[in-house]
Write a structure and sequence with these properties.
The complex is a heterotrimer of chains A (215), B (225) and C (75). With 215 residues, chain A is mainly α. Chain A contains 6 helices and no strands. Chain A has one domain (2-213). Chain A has helices at residues 2-23, 37-64, 67-99, 107-128, 132-162, 179-213. Chain A starts with a helix and ends with a helix. By secondary structure, chain B is an all-alpha fold. Chain B has 9 helices and no strands. The longest helix of chain B is centred in the middle third of the chain and has 30 residues, at 94-123. The radius of gyration of chain B is 18 Å and the shape is globular. Chain C has a domain at 51-75. In chain C, 77% of the residues lie in helices and 0% in strands. In chain C, helix 1 crosses helix 2. The radius of gyration of chain C is 20 Å and the shape is rod-shaped. The chains are: A mainly alpha (215), B mainly alpha (225), C mainly alpha (75). The interface between A and B is medium-sized, with 27 and 31 residues.
């Protein structure tokens, strides 16, 4: 089953790339550098999905102490951190030619950076606890706090920025996009979601086998 | 034994042991004074720049001393082998959580009050005019800080590398509180009415509720061992 | 505005490196677990463990062969 998912993922990613570079038209203002959007936006959306899954799995673990829930939480957090990192890197690379600077403390980049550090901390906490049961319990608590913090981070950072700065002209996101851009974006989003699902499935399965073998 | 009574006992025990030893409080006050010197030396002689940075510096001072204070929150239990005592305590563990939060909150408020006085003296801040508003903002911010800080302190108390893990986990989560508190304090220090920063106060309030609720619901899981 | 294809390549390239790196990490863990499974299954009671006889070679090749058959059987 995971094999089928793997092939489907590869197909989706290939399709996404073809669409992003072959079908999507050249954007008027930014030129072809705008194609980074097909990497950047799906990454951040999948990252949010990953952390939502961490929240659900964390609650499930605390409620039922199911080890499967704990493995899902860990796998999803790893994937989430990965995609968040890609979001930040691609955002910075996109920003350099369009905004003139690698980094700007705009609302989106700042809140994603905070997200990154929060869940990196989650993985760090897991790494620092040897006892598996305690690691599961503690990271579940942290997973819940972090996820509930996300809306708070969003509002605070957004208000912090927009009350002082007008939004920049080049917004790396789908504001009012002609349909073809949207379609290419959605296909890439689907491909990234498949990649996430494949990573999580494989990782969770590995964790289970790991716990059985190295018990 | 009622829930409230159990929380009160935890608070009372912490207050009494602190009053006897005065370790933490004295060290924190001294630390606060040193922070003040640091801020002055780091920002230099430019009076205007310092004045503009004051709300941020105030909360930096609160957070840095808060981190040091909270980092020691469960020191007594861990060092003197009292952890099992907490774990084996009957009834809802969240009473212990609330007692601990109350104790930490009081400690932090005392230190913050002293920092505020030091700011008034050293940086010539005029607080008197808007004291009530300032107190409200500081209270809102510190409650959230104490709530999530106590939870994370309990969590990291028995973990490897806890001295660095505790701030690493706490600080990103606290960003909304920091932003809201600094923005609200800015407004207060400029003499604006609190209504202008209503949304920040609501955010602080929401954060307080979220952190306390999660703490109450999950402290059991943290204390299990 | 000029096309800045270099930046596009950098962004996609970096993503490919990161995701590919994680994929390789997963593959490596899988191999380690399979070889650990195989050696712990192949170790009969009382006999010398494979790891005690010329540790590097037999363990490595034995592990890989077992991993391959293990993989074929498992899937």
């Amino acid at each position: 089953m995971s094999r089928a998912l793997g092939w489907l993922t590869a197909l989706g990613l290939a399709a996404g790339l073809v669409l992003a570079f072959g079908v999507a038209p050249r954007e008027e203002i930014q030129g072809n550098v705008q194609r980074i959007m097909y990497l950047h936006v799906p990454s951040v959306l999948v990252a949010y999905l990953a952390f939502a899954v961490v929240l659900v799995a964390s609650v499930a673990y605390l409620a039922r102490r199911s080890e499967a829930a704990d493995r899902l939480a860990q796998a999803s957090a790893e994937a989430g951190v990965l995609f968040t990192g890609i979001t930040i890197a691609s955002g910075a690379i996109w920003g350099k030619p369009t905004w003139g600077t690698w980094w700007t403390w705009d609302a989106r980049l700042t809140s994603v950076a905070i997200l990154f550090v929060m869940y990196l901390g989650y993985l760090l906490l897991r790494a620092m606890i040897e006892d598996r049961e305690r690691a599961a319990r503690y990271s579940a608590v942290l997973g819940i706090v972090a996820a509930l913090d996300i809306p708070l981070v969003h509002f605070s950072v957004y208000w912090w920025r927009t009350l002082h700065q007008p939004p920049s002209i080049f917004k790396p996101g789908p504001s009012t996009m002609p349909p073809v851009f949207l379609v290419v974006l959605l296909v890439n989003l689907a491909a990234f979601t498949l990649l996430y699902a494949w990573f999580v499935t494989k990782r969770a399965r590995l964790l289970r086998r790991e716990h059985e073998v190295f018990a | 034994m009622s829930y409230a009574r159990r929380a009160w006992i935890v608070l009372w025990k912490d207050l009494v042991s602190e009053r006897r030893s005065k370790e933490t409080l004295n060290a924190l006050l001294f630390f606060a004074l040193l922070l003040l010197f640091l801020f002055q030396f780091a920002l230099g002689d430019d009076r205007e720049r310092l004045k503009a940075a004051l709300p941020g510096l105030l909360w930096l001072g609160f957070i840095l001393s808060g981190l040091v204070g909270l980092g020691r929150a469960f020191l007594a239990e861990r060092d003197h082998d009292c952890w099992e005592g907490l774990v084996l305590a009957p009834g809802d563990k969240s009473a212990i959580y609330l007692g601990k939060v109350a104790g930490n909150l009081l400690l932090m408020l005392v230190v913050e009050a002293v920092i505020l006085v030091l700011f008034t003296v050293f940086f010539n801040v005029d607080v008197a005019g808007h004291l009530a508003a300032l107190v409200a903002v500081v209270l809102l911010g510190t409650v959230g800080f104490a709530a999530v800080g106590t939870l994370f302190a309990a969590m990291t108390a028995n973990v490897r590398a806890r001295e660095v893990l505790f701030p690493v986990l706490l600080l990103p989560v606290l960003v909304p509180v920091l932003l809201g508190a600094v923005k609200a304090t800015e407004a207060v220090m400029l003499g604006e009415p609190l209504g202008t920063v209503a949304r920040w106060l609501q955010l602080l309030g929401a954060a307080d509720v979220v952190y306390l609720t999660v703490g109450i619901l999950t402290f059991d899981a943290v204390l299990e061992g | 505005m000029p096309d800045n294809w270099g930046f596009v390549a950098a962004a996609y390239g970096l993503a490919a490196l990161v995701l590919g790196g994680y994929w390789r990490y997963l593959r490596r863990r899988e191999r380690e677990i399979y070889s650990e499974e195989a050696t712990s299954q192949a170790r009969p009671v009382g006999a010398t463990a494979p790891s005690e006889v010329s540790p590097r070679d037999s363990q490595g090749s034995g592990g890989k062969a077992a991993a391959r058959t293990g993989k074929a059987a498992g899937r």
